[in-house]
UniProtKB/TrEMBL annotation:
Shown stretch of the complete protein: 171 to 495 of 569
Alphabetic keyword roster: ATP-binding, Kinase, Nucleotide-binding, SH2 domain, Transferase, Tyrosine-protein kinase
Protein name as annotated: Tyrosine-protein kinase
Molecular functions per Gene Ontology: ATP binding; non-membrane spanning protein tyrosine kinase activity
High-level lineage: Eukaryota, Metazoa, Ecdysozoa, Nematoda, Chromadorea
Enzyme Commission code(s) on record: 2.7.10.2
Enzyme category, top tier: transferase
Similarity remark: Belongs to the protein kinase superfamily. Tyr protein kinase family.
Binding-site list for ATP: 89
Length: 325
């Protein structure tokens, strides 16, 4: 992203390295729960060519607004079975660039097959409006959940951190760069509906230093954004990521980026996850881990954390029993 004359930011169109999939404004949603084992029925298997008939879709409730148009909750009829789904409907009069972007997003989404990534069921393209049909994440966005009044147990926060790393590892293994990883793009497949965040802001606070200065996007810049998501999760999205709120987006520069990023008092992840956060936001990309390496390290550390939790629970109950005696 570079500064415009009016002080805003634009992302330059840069040539992409070999075999990296260019991604215009596709949104890949990470899903933070495994739905494939849900008991309520069959997970729809998309038709081979991914074409879905408009007649097989019923839309019931508007969920949000995206760059392409509206996102609706609906049902999809597959081989006589009705299954909940989310439908992204491209808005009215479409320009060629928008249809291109729509098909581009469809192509990218259909590459993924992972329990932590929203499943792509197919697209309705035979008549207008163009629609993309995908797995419904009825729990809303992670940002919505964390900003709501409910307190999220630390176990869930750690679970989110691991799920996002797993989804990102899958995305990077397909040589796709996300480019817009943030808590507002992580959805929850549960029944806790959070507030809907459908806005698009220039994600300055989520971008790596080399993206801000040179417009580079690659796995290591996604890893930086993942570090920012850890920040969001463990500050309940209540603090502006990395830089204090007093620093406006337009003031985020290299001087700010290079300062050490400390969690505000009373917030922050367990120490076992803090090291992952710190490795993600190293200023030199070559010093940041890949998603693969990060996931291996994180999984080990989370196991350590869980053992520690169990031990302190045991100690606490032991003490209680001792006091009772
Ligand atoms: P775009 O990428 O076109 O800007 P998004 O994909 O971010 O739009 O969708 C806009 C909003 O719609 C999201 O913030 C979310 O609230 C909702 N949404 C998108 N996909 C789903 C889904 N699969 N399940 C539930 N809600 C969704």
């Amino acid at each position: 992203a570079f500064r415009n004359e009016d002080g805003g930011w634009t992302c330059p169109k840069l040539p992409l390295p070999n075999n990296e999939v260019p991604q215009k404004f596709a949104h890949i949603h990470l899903l933070l729960e495994d739905w494939s084992n849900k008991v309520d029925g069959v997970v729809p298997v998309p038709r081979k060519n991914l074409i879905i008939y408009h007649d097989d879709i019923t839309m019931t409730k508007k969920l949000g607004e995206g760059a392409f148009g509206e996102v609706w909750k609906g049902t999809l009829k597959i081989d006589g079975i009705l299954k909940d789904c989310a439908v992204k409907k491209i808005k009215g009069q479409v320009k060629r660039a928008e249809t291109d972007a729509f098909f581009h997003e469809a192509k990218i989404m259909s590459k993924f097959d992972h329990e932590c990534i929203v499943k792509y069921y197919g697209q309705c393209t035979l008549i207008s409006p163009l629609m993309a049909v995908m797995e419904l994440a009825s729990g809303g966005t992670v940002r919505g959940l964390l900003r709501s009044k409910k307190t999220t147990p630390i176990e869930n926060l750690v679970h989110f951190t691991v799920c996002i790393a797993r989804g990102m590892e899958h995305i990077s293994s397909k040589r796709v760069i996300h480019r817009d990883l943030a808590a507002r793009n992580c959805l929850i497949g549960d029944n806790l509906m959070g507030e809907n965040i459908g806005f698009r802001i220039a994600p300055i606070r989520w971008l790596a230093p080399e993206t801000l200065t040179k417009g580079i996007f690659n796995e290591k810049t996604d890893v930086w954004s993942y570090g920012v998501v850890i920040w969001e999760i463990f500050t309940a999205c209540a603090h502006h990521p990395l830089y204090p709120k007093s620093i406006k987006d337009a003031q985020v520069d290299i001087k700010e980026i290079d300062k050490p990023h400390k969690f505000p008092k009373g917030t922050g992840p367990p120490k076992e996850i803090l090291s992952t956060f710190e490795s993600c936001i190293r200023s030199k990309p070559e010093n940041r881990p890949t998603f693969r390496a990060l996931l291996v390290e994180l999984a080990k550390n989370v196991e350590k954390w869980k053992k520690g939790q169990q031990q302190s629970k045991r100690k606490a109950t032991g003490n209680n029993t001792a006091t009772q005696k």
